[in-house]
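Below is one record:
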Amino acid sequence: MKAVCWYGANDVRLETVPEPKIINPKDAILKITSATICGSDLHIYDGYIPTMKKGDILGHEFMGEVVDVGREVKKLKVGDRVVVSSIIGCGECFFCKQQSWSLCDNSNPNGWMQEKVYGFGTSGIFGYSHLFGGYAGAFAEYVRVPFADHGAVKVPHGIPDEKLLPISDAFPTGFMGADMCDIQPGDIVAVWGCGPVGLFAMRSAYMLGAERVIGIDRVPERLQMARDFAKAETINYEEIDAGEALKEMTGGRGPDACIDAVGLEAHGMGLEGFFDEAKQTIRLETDRPPVLRQMMVACRKGGTLSIMGVYGGFVDKMPMGAAFNKSLTFKMGQMHGQKYMPMLLEKVVNNEIDPSQVFSHTLPLAEAKQGFEIFKHKKDNCIKVLLKP
């Protein structure tokens, strides 16, 4: 089969690789009908995620048709149309039973690698390095889905892939970001990053009762998308200091909650931004934290910081004094997809939201390299790229 494989920073190639097979009786094999490039994939593309190996198949946001199942798969059959969570959970461990699927004890065979840095291992993730299990990703014609009864959600026929595909990752990630804010009636929520996850976080904040949502970015078409799709107020941080703007827009109090939908390649301004990028380039710092710093200072006293942008290692120059003395609450983590996917699917089926609006480009799998470049550099008004095998 054909698959998009990683060979180094900014080097992905369409290769011929063996088709996946049933390894465990709880596996299913999926024929991919649609996949999409996620902002987290850019961290791999740019070379910032460790333990990648040449030839690894990328892709973690996908859907398709079941073509084979293991003998212990009970909920799926050949021919079912499914959307699959990017997070792999066993469904049986302490954390899965608590709906904390990304903390699964059993789905990551390489958890021992994480223990050295994180103290404990976490769940496996499709196509996201050997640190997260070394699973083959979904930028391919077929993919093996472990623990398929727990990760694959059956979806109706007759609804276009574009409306259903974001339920795999971007939509539940954004929703979890808003859910962790403990939004109360009248709250003001600020979201850093107006890409797909940020847009879904904004929509989700309104779903959960926020009175006002403010999106922060520097790309004009993404800010416009935040206004049109998410009905958010916006700040272009290249034109005005985001912290000062938020203070003015909230009557001097600051937003009740702040969501980071950017992650480890956040763009800083001025000398601070240059310093972070330079340190990350030579690995004196693994992640760039300007969004975290801004949120810690901008959030109101007693507010909540929700971090859904991916971080992988270490940051410095953090204003912990501000966070401590303002009594801020931090919540963060990889999304618990299986917890949110059924509810979000119902909203799509009932036409409460049309997630397909975030897709700006559709490309064949053979043009995945071009898709990465368009998405990375925000060319041609790109918001999100859909890949078709």
